[in-house]
């Protein structure tokens, strides 16, 4: 297995963390009789020689030894070794000479995977077909092997892998090899119908959806829902060791949030992904999943609903209602999944507000949860109800504020409630006034409260804010973050925060200078005090506050004319976000829309993260923003959410953009 391993000069080879001299130990660990040692070695291989999908010269040097491991029956967990080989040689992986060399090395020994396709270990047989398709390089031979294995295979999981490999084959060889692609599609069509079992049929339908949607049945959604329920009926009951009462720890919640039917999750995710923009079909499918008698199917449906709603702006009301219906389920895994998704949906969770309200009313123990370190946090149901903007959360939050334990993150939900949360201001104000200035967690305790009081425009909070601003000890690790939040809250209060003017002036030569200048302009309108700070930051290309300074100049309008040269230069040469912010500032300061409209249109199209900044500018300009009203109308009509890279924050950012677009168009005779 390891013949020649000591002849390799591993110390001269590299992986993600430097010298590869530890790789022989990892390779030997893969052959260990100790399961923990094998898993540690595999983790080390992924983390070092295949870090984040990359390959290194040490990766190439590992290939012969990994192939030898995969072929030795006495080695445990060989399937994971095969999966590792597939990952490092994936044709869709990173380009480059080294990646090509790894693929070539695997292709040169692809006969190993032919033998493994008929291995005695079903896990190995399940991993081998993907390697055959990727590395054998002989379409006729690959197709014949897959067809043969489908004929003789009796293990359901291996059959699913064979169906997935047929789909991979069809996608990989289309359109270069039409004949073999057509044969793969024909085989998938056969597998998608009786007499095959429901799991295999679902797998085949998912692959057809990815490579040949014209071969899907006309009644696709009813067929899939029926097969899903048939599959659930045949599945052995799954034990849920983490359901029921127990400590509400982070680890426990994470275990419950993982799909306990990972195979079913993969089958349906494949289908959802392939259906893509066919949103009505996907919504109907989700409703079928969320209405299933089987709680595991419903749990998968909850998570997949979140995936659809993160990407698409339509079709979410009915799935959200059905997600709300899961809140009363006795299974903790399903309950936790529903709560987690509803928290993320914010205003879109409104159709589930009634069951959320019932939960926070009749199960007060869910209003606060305690993490593994004992830190209290707002319970998910109450957080979701408030995030939905439902005013019924206000009296419940008032009870929490009056209780002996108040979560630090309570203030973060206040902005979602708008004016309905104004009655909470006195309690929030009192709590802010009691935050210990030298506490190690002063940021976690103070910043949410500052944000909440700013959102409420609470003028009476000024003394409590100034107490923070004036009393934070020098050298406090979180001082800058708390200072910035305090300054922002004073700026929101405008002229009502006149008492803070000396404090804001005193910050104009500190690291919080731009934030202080921003607030000072809001409070005093004193351009002479503010402009020197802005000019200094705008002139410093390396300043981390340059974009903020441009935004402040834009809000100042004509009063910021002395900054126009710096703003024009920034609009022409900064990064995308800086260019957009500076172009907006020039437009608001001096007009010149003709000169900078191309910059803003380009930024809007090519850099979606700039869209909210641009929409805010158009809103501030009123009728003068008409040259970009067409872009805002197009955004409101677009079915897809605007920023894919935001992950779980995509919904929040997208809702803010849509709200800003509507405000900009309101009152301008635009729909």
By DSSP (H or I, 4+ residues per run), the number of helices equals 36
The structural class is mainly alpha
Helix content: 55-70%
Q: How many β-strand runs?
A: 4
Could you name the ranges where pLDDT drops below 50 across 5 or more consecutive residues? 239-257
* Major β-sheet profile: 2 strands, antiparallel
**Averaged pLDDT, please?**
91
Beta content comes to: under 5%
* Terminal residue distance: 71 Å
Question: Which shape, going by the Cα principal axes?
Answer: globular
Specify Rg, calculated over alpha carbons: 30 Å
Strand order of the largest sheet: 1-2
Overall description:
The chain has 671 residues and is mainly α. Among the domains are: 218-231 and 256-405; 407-492, no CATH class; 539-671. Helix content is 64%, strand content 1%. The chain is built from 36 helices and 4 strands. The protein has a two-stranded antiparallel ribbon with strand order 1-2. A two-stranded antiparallel ribbon has the order 3-4. It is globular and about 80 Å long. Residues 239-257 have low confidence and may be disordered.
Task: Show the helix and strand layout.
Elements: E1 14-15, E2 18-19, H1 23-30, H2 35-48, H3 57-71, H4 78-88, H5 97-108, H6 111-116, H7 122-135, H8 139-152, H9 156-173, H10 178-191, H11 198-211, H12 220-234, H13 250-257, H14 262-275, H15 279-290, H16 295-311, H17 317-325, H18 332-345, H19 353-362, E3 368-370, E4 376-378, H20 380-387, H21 393-402, H22 414-417, H23 425-433, H24 442-456, H25 462-471, H26 479-493, H27 501-506, H28 513-524, H29 527-539, H30 546-556, H31 564-573, H32 576-590, H33 593-606, H34 611-621, H35 629-637, H36 650-665
Antiparallel strand pairs: 1-2, 3-4
Helix pairs in contact: 1-2, 3-4, 3-5, 4-7, 7-9, 8-9, 8-10, 9-10, 9-11, 10-11, 11-12, 11-14, 12-15, 13-18, 14-16, 15-16, 15-17, 16-18, 18-20, 19-20, 23-24, 23-25, 24-26, 25-26, 26-28, 28-29, 28-30, 29-30, 30-32, 31-32, 32-33, 32-34, 34-36, 35-36
């Amino acid at each position: 297995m390891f013949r020649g391993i000591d002849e390799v000069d591993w110390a001269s080879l590299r992986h993600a963390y430097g010298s590869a001299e530890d790789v022989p130990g990892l390779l030997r660990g893969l052959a260990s009789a100790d399961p923990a040692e094998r898993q540690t070695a595999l983790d080390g291989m992924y983390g070092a020689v295949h870090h984040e999908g990359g390959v290194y010269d040490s990766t190439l040097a590992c290939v012969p030894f990994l192939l030898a491991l995969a072929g030795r029956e006495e080695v445990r967990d060989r399937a994971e070794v095969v999966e590792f080989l597939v990952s490092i040689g994936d044709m869709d992986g990173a380009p480059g000479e080294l990646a090509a060399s790894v693929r070539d090395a695997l292709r040169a020994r692809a006969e190993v995977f032919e033998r493994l396709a008929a291995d005695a270990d079903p896990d190995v047989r399940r991993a081998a077909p993907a390697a055959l398709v990727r590395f054998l390089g002989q379409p006729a031979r690959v197709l014949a092997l897959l067809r043969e294995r489908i004929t003789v295979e009796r293990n359901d999981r291996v059959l699913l892998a064979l169906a997935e490999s047929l789909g991979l084959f069809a996608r990989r060889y289309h359109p270069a090899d039409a004949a073999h692609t057509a044969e793969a599609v024909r085989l998938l069509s056969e597998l998608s119908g009786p007499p095959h079992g429901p799991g295999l049929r679902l797998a085949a339908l998912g692959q057809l959806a990815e490579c040949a949607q014209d071969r899907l049945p006309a009644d696709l959604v009813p067929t899939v829902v029926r097969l899903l329920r048939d599959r659930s009926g045949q599945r052995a009951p799954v034990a849920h060791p983490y359901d029921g009462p127990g400590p509400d720890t982070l680890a426990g919640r994470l275990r419950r949030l993982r799909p306990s039917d990972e195979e079913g999750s993969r089958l349906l995710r494949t289908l959802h992904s392939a259906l893509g923009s066919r949103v009505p079909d996907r919504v109907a499918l989700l409703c079928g999943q969320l209405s299933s008698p089987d709680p595991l199917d419903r749990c998968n449906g909850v998570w997949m609903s979140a995936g659809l709603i993160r990407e698409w702006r339509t079709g979410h009301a009915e799935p959200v209602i059905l997600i709300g219906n899961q809140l009363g389920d006795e299974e903790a895994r399903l309950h936790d999944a529903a709560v987690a998704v509803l928290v993320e949906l914010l205003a879109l969770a409104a159709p589930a507000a009634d069951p959320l309200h019932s939960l926070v009313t009749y199960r007060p123990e869910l209003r606060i949860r305690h993490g593994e370190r004992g830190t209290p946090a707002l319970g998910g149901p109450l957080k979701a109800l408030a995030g939905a903007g439902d005013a019924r959360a206000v009296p419940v939050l008032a009870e929490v504020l009056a209780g002996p334990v108040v979560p630090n993150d309570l203030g973060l939900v206040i902005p979602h409630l708008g004016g309905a949360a104004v009655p909470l201001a006195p309690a929030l104000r009192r709590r802010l006034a009691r935050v210990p200035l030298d506490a190690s967690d002063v940021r976690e305790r103070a910043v949410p409260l500052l944000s909440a009081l700013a959102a409420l425009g609470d003028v009476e909070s000024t003394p409590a804010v100034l107490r923070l601003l004036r009393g934070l000890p020098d050298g406090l690790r979180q001082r800058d973050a708390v200072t910035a939040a305090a300054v922002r809250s004073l700026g929101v209060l405008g002229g009502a925060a006149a008492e803070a003017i000396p404090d804001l002036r005193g910050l104009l030569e500190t690291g919080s200078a731009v934030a202080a200048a921003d607030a000072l302009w809001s409070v005093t309108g004193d351009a002479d005090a503010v402009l020197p700070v802005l000019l200094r930051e705008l002139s410093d290309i390396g300043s981390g506050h340059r974009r903020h300074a441009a935004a402040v100049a834009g809000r100042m309008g004509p009063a910021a004319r002395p900054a126009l040269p710096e703003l024009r230069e920034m609009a022409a040469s900064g990064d995308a976000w800086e260019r957009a912010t500076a172009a907006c500032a020039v437009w608001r300061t001096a007009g010149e829309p003709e000169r900078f409209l191309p910059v803003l249109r380009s930024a809007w199209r090519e850099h979606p993260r700039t869209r909210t900044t641009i929409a805010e500018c158009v809103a501030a300009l009123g009728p003068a923003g008409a040259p970009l009203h067409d872009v805002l109308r197009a955004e409101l009509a677009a079915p897809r959410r605007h920023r894919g890279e935001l992950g779980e924050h995509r919904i929040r950012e997208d809702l803010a953009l849509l709200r800003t677009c509507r405000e900009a168009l309101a009152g301008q005779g635009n729909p």
